[in-house]
Amino acid sequence: MRVFFTGGSGKAGRHAITYLQAQGHTVVNADRVPSGLDVSELLIDLCDSGQVIGAMSQYADFHELDPGTGVPKYDAVVHFAAVPRVMIGTDGECFRQNTLSTYNVIEAAVKLGIPKVIFASSETTYAVCFADGELKPEYVPIDEDHPTVPHDSYAMSKVCNEVTGRSFQARTGSDIYALRINNVIEPHEYAEQFPAYMDDPALRRRNIFAYIDARDLGHMVDCCLKTDGLGYEVFNVSNDDLSVGITSDEVIERFYQGVPVMRDMRPDETFYANDKAKRMVGFAPKHSWREVLG
User: Fold this and answer.
1) Count of domains for the chain
2) 56 lies in which domain range?
3) Is residue 75 part of a domain?
4) Could you tell me which residue ranges the NAD-dependent epimerase/dehydratase domain spans (predicted)?
5) What CATH number is given to the structural domain containing 46?
6) Is residue 264, in this structure, part of any structural domain at all?
7) Looking at residue 183, what is its pLDDT?
8) Does the N terminus or the C terminus of the chain have fewer Cβ atoms within 10 A?
9) Average pLDDT over residues 230-250
10) Residue 260 domain-assigned (yes or no)
């Protein structure tokens, strides 16, 4: 597939693009800064609707001129670009950029007849991550039916983007899939960060004791590219296991007392349920911090 990928210069995007290329997809990265990857790139401002629709409808590299058959069409858009969290700039600017860029990207895609859009939503929509003080989930494990009433501008922008995606899908019939991505971990970060999480599991409370390996995130995007006809759907994206060394029962005892537990859980099972992604698009995460730390 020919894929227009926004935000490929970021942490998650670099790994996702590399994975998609390995699966045989042709990727064009649209970002404000170069990625350093071996990929065609267009440097644009996604908050400018003219630049977005222009980038999606023009040549992306010299080799595309050779066939003499006009500008090649995209099969899908993957939108990862965003201000990645609160407390980088102002709250309002975070919300403005994230919502406006997502509107522009989806609008351009559907108006150009691109049949599929996959965009990055977030674990933060469940409100736990950036809450003032401690906010516990309404139940565990958290699935896609859990309420999304966040208190911060980043998570608000992601909830708004989900409404935007649903509305465009209702009007156009395109496939639009939102990925509620958990905390993205690159392979080298296991050895750097996870020993501290073994010593102090509370460090993972705001991430719901979960994570997603950057390589498995690329796999999830590929699964969505290969699955047609779902209309609008939202998927949690996480690895299968906890990001701490204690068991799920110990996590419940120490951090989730009084929180309803909706099913029996395996000793190492994630509290960020990924069952829907497995069932509907064939998601099968393969990596774990345990491969590195034992």
Assistant:
1) 1
2) 2-187+211-240+271-285
3) yes
4) 5-200
5) 3.40.50.720
6) no
7) 98
8) C
9) 98
10) no
